[in-house]
Amino acid sequence: MSHSGEKPYKCLECGKAFKRSSLLQVRCQTKFHICISFHLQVHQSVHTGVRTFLCPYCPLTFKWSSHYQYHLRQHTGECPYPCDTCPKAFKNSSSLRRHKNVHLGLKPYTCSVCNKSFTQSTNLRQHMRIHTGERPYICCECGRSFTHSSNLALHKPYRCSECGKAFKGSSGLKYHMRDHTGERPYRCTECGKSFKRSSLLSIHQRVHTGVRAFQCPHCPLTFKWSSHYQYHLRQHTGERPYVCKECGKSFKNTSCLRRHRNHGSLIVSQPALNIPPNTSQNY
């Protein structure tokens, strides 16, 4: 059929026909076999809106297998398209193709205003905003706009009137202001102790409830506090993330490092004892 040009599979909605019949879905219905072209079925999702590909990791669905496969790689991290020149690998063939332009020195995307060239169309698109003044990334909190999404991500529109510290969200500023005002609206009903955040109150209540929320994956021990849990994990892993800058010795927690430093400073700062030479002789 590929030579004759025959296209026997026709869409009932728009009349578009397809020639490939190598991929068939065969469904048994009573005593008959109904053969449906896979390509025709996929095409008809344009008209039906059916999204047959459901992601097992999140609620997203897809019409096309290629979009589905690419999305799966966002979850799995799989990069099946390696570059044959450098160690980089990519999630789809188009990304690899664009990357190869770097090695080949190709810059096929040229600015129509200043003639500057780029290896990727996305770089040209971002560059064009210099000329057009387009700022498509808008802060929903203050209305300020940016040329790049990364600039919006770094933007912190909420600033403390007391110390000038800035925050991305109003909740961060609200919690911070309690450092200045001393407000502690979350009170423990058992002992009356109050806290700036509800999360801190929840942690504190473990003192009264006895809940040990942190379970060691290596042994049966459980812990109330994250700090105790993290220290215990290091007994299993051997991790010693706190390093003395003076001698390079490492420790499992900050208190051990602090004691080490204090001990060292005592040795260094201790005055030498002025002991006179022993002139007496024992016979």
TrEMBL record:
InterPro entries named among the record's database cross-references: Znf_C2H2_sf (IPR036236), Znf_C2H2_type (IPR013087)
Alphabetical UniProt keywords: DNA-binding, Metal-binding, Nucleus, Repeat, Transcription, Transcription regulation, Zinc, Zinc-finger
Matching SMART domains: ZnF_C2H2 (SM00355)
Stored SUPFAM superfamilies: beta-beta-alpha zinc fingers (SSF57667)
Any GO BP: regulation of immune system process
Superkingdom of the source species: Eukaryota
GO molecular function, one term: RNA polymerase II cis-regulatory region sequence-specific DNA binding
UniProt keyword Repeat, yes or no: yes
Subcellular location(s) per record: Nucleus
Record carries keyword Metal-binding: yes
GO terms for cellular component: nucleoplasm
Domain C2H2-type: from-to ranges: 9-33, 53-80, 81-108, 109-136, 137-156, 158-185, 186-213, 214-241, 242-271
PANTHER family: GASTRULA ZINC FINGER PROTEIN XLCGF26.1-LIKE-RELATED, ZINC FINGER AND BTB DOMAIN-CONTAINING
Homology family: Belongs to the krueppel C2H2-type zinc-finger protein family.
The protein's name: C2H2-type domain-containing protein
